[in-house]
Amino acid sequence: MGTPKLQAPIHGSYHNSGNFSLTRATDARHVHGHQGVDLRAAGGTVVYPMASGRVSNVGTDPKGGNVVFIDYGGGLRSYYAHLGTVSVQKGDVVDVNTPVATISNSGNAKFTAPHLHLGISIGGSWVDPARFIPVPPYSDIGRDEILWLPEAKERAARFDMQQHLQQRAVASLALQCERFLKLCG
Predict the structure, then answer these.
(1) Are the C-beta atoms of 30 and 140 separated by less than 8 Å?
(2) Using one digit for the tens of pLDDT, what is the confidence trace for 115-145?
(3) What pTM was estimated for this model as a whole?
(4) pLDDT of residue 177
């Protein structure tokens, strides 16, 4: 069983604003290395899975802001960070056309232009995403050169990850109650 063919998580054009490097500086922002690539596109641009898989985690962290992990099988996983809104939950089965999230600048990227931090790991080790998808040459475009899609910045600012995660818990509880009522008659 080999590695699945991966597609870019952005279905359109994007720029590279941060190269992959485990140990050396790639630009002024990543002086201690960078375990992924930064794909810059307009804030609010939809992000998709790179192949069919299962969402293995959704949440927030101080560096990545709103994040999503997708497991593609065989130890291959993707990590999406700096997201605005998220439309999937842990356990969701996804394919290459399932909207997962939108590009933003959450976490430690809040003073940068909107972008998707894309990390890929195989067996727990970070690998260069350029091995799997087209990554343009690095370009140091200014933070205001790529703007937000209409209303996307406001939607990202209103997005509440805790509320999003609770929606799954409420739906699960409702389903359990419905099953219980059917059993009781």
Answers:
(1) no
(2) 999 999 999 999 999 899 998 888 876 655 6
(3) 0.85
(4) 72
| Cα 147 from Cα 168, distance rounded (Å) | 32
Question: What type of residue sits at position 160?
Answer: D
> What does the pLDDT look like over 53-94, one tens digit per residue?
999 999 999 999 999 999 999 999 999 999 999 999 999 999
Question: How far is Cα 76 from Cα 126, in angstroms, rounded to an integer?
Answer: 10
Tokens found for residue 17: 């604003």
Q: Which position has the token pair 């290459």? A: 96
Sorted by where each begins, the domain ranges of the chain are 15-184
* Residue 136 DSSP label: P
| The two three-digit tokens of residue 105, written as one number | 């600048």
Q: Using CA atoms, how far apart are residues 88 and 124, in angstroms rounded to an integer?
A: 23
Judge whether 78 and 70 are in contact, CB under 8 Å: yes
Architecture of domain 15-184: Distorted Sandwich (2.70)
Which of these ranges, 105-114, 124-133, 165-174, has the smallest mean pLDDT? Answer: 165-174
H helices then E strands: how many in the chain? 2, 10
Which tokens is 171 given?
Answer: 């739906």
Segment 130-136 long-range contacts (CB within 8 Å, at least 24 positions apart): 130/20, 130/37, 132/3, 132/6, 132/50, 133/6, 133/7, 133/8, 133/9, 133/50, 134/8, 135/16, 135/19, 135/37, 135/39, 136/14, 136/15, 136/16
